Amino acid sequence: MIRTRSLDSDGSRLRRLAPLALPVAWGAMAVAWRFACPPAREPGLPIRIAAGVVFLSVGVGLVLGVRRGLIRELVRARAVAAATQRVLLRPPPGRLEGLTLAAGQLSASRGASVGGDLYEAVATPHGVRIVVGDVRGHGLAALGAVVAVLGSFREAAHDEPELAGVLRRLERALERHLRERARDEHPARAGTDPEHPAAEEFVTLLLLEIGPDGRLSVFNCGHPGPYLLGRKAERLPVGDPLPPLGVLPLPAGLAPYTAARLLPGETLVLHTDGAEEARDHRGRFFALDSALTGPPGEAPAALVRRVHAELLRHTGGRPADDVALLVVRNDRARVPGGPRAPPRAPPPGTGKQQPTHTHAQRQWG
Q: What's the CATH code, domain 90-330?
């Protein structure tokens, strides 16, 4: 195995140096000719011009060879980054238990495709469970916390029957990550002060579960509330916020907010604070609620693309913070006991009235 790795390393090194072989050989021949050939040592304008052309050609060849190697390395690095994003921050499935989903992220780090925002949606025996979060800071420095929280959520969402159990698992995973980071940042090991100390890191997140009847169970850990789209975008109440994970321990008793519903045909937009805090060159905030109000029946994927395009125009293509959007539309069919159409008027002359229904009867059972 060691010998194979050594051969692979040698082969890779040779491939990187291959573009430089021709200009180096050319330069070596020019130097040998300059010092070994007697006519080359004689003064004269033609000789000087010939020597200048040779050395200029060598220099151009070296520059082009290095540039070609750098471009190849850049393409390889981008391919690795794209594969990392697909594994770490994979897009949610387009359809999940009768829900239509779409998500996307803009990274504030130039050239990075992942950052400090996270999202995930999974179908479980307990309902569709979704998490959207934001690690303090942005870019590649926040990836460790993103990995810890998402990895824990993908396991706990299936294992824990109660949503509170999922939240506690996320808290424990983040605590382990922060302990390991603090140990690695100790002066005896690191030797330098970290740019983003573990002691200052925390995660805001929104954890919710969508039941078969559209009922929402929500935990809000210091995260911006979602928008419910109708004729206009309205902030959906999600209860009193809990502290962000990593700041204070969660309270002993945890109960999700359950007074909200996502009825058939309604759309829910979850986002990170970078969407509302983005500013233009005049310092004006991005009007996310206005941007979310699009054409009737707009598909979630189209909504994500449109809002990202408007946000990039607003910030001049340089958002100051990571921005994540996750859109969920309830495309489930209405079930018995769900909202009914208004009662029809009785035929003329029958003298009979159709039964009416109370507001409570028209709601989901």
A: 3.60.40.10
